Prior knowledge:
Blueprint: H1 2-18, H2 38-42, H3 56-60, E1 67-76, H4 81-91, H5 96-112, E2 122-125, H6 130-136, H7 140-152, E3 161-163, H8 167-171, H9 175-181, E4 186-188, E5 198-206, H10 210-219, E6 226-235
Parallel strand pairs: 1-6, 2-5, 5-6
Antiparallel strand pairs: 3-4
Helix pairs in contact: 5-7
This protein binds zinc ion.
The site of zinc ion has 8 residues, from helix 2.
Amino acid sequence: MPCMLHGMRSSSFLLDLLYPPYCESCRKVLTRGEVLCDECLARLTLTEHGRMRDNKLEALFADIRKFERGAAWCFYDDDSVVLRLIHSLKYFSRPSIGEWIGRMAAEEMRRQNPLFFEGMDVVVPVPLHKNKERERGYNQSELIARGVARACGLPLDTLSLVRVIDNQTQTRLSKEERLENTRDIFALSDKESLRGKHVLLVDDVVTTGATMRDCMRCLSPLRGTRFSVLSAAVAGNLSSQPFTSSTV
Ligand SMILES: [Zn+2]
């Protein structure tokens, strides 16, 4: 066994020599840490949502009856570190970034509010359509959710909530047709497993909140179920006006 471990260490050392780990934002070679260099870590625009009741994310879902808590880890704009991270995660086959983001987001929430995860029962990622997941090889929100679940010691459920309509199909529709169709984007594969649970929904980015709303609408008929939301990033210019057009 010691030889095998020694061998593993040597090969990882060799890999680091050949392909040194680099910062996913500025591409500088990392001399310590993982994923981001110290400068890029310091440039993350944390929302501090964990400390605030009625923060912008909570305001976005304030009209949803069973909604409990909401927070995003970072604000994003076109040139933000967090958006570059998510871009690498989604489009450059860097799945390891996902769990790291989830862990960082969960640890930050707990630092801001030690009771943030209090009462939550299960972590559920916003699902990708199976065709999209096959194409990409993974669901980036599931990886983030995995990191969150590990960091806060909650179970992860990747099976109960499924996406039955591919977003790409949705974007071809007019705005009105999309609103008509939203009720069917997600479905429950198992109607019992999330009943009565406080579900923490996890996504990579919240922009209008429409996707999260669709998930909550799907879960809403389950008796006793409540929702909270954690996203890695939220638009920096997110309106504080809650949606009022449709109520779960
Ligand atoms: Zn950097």
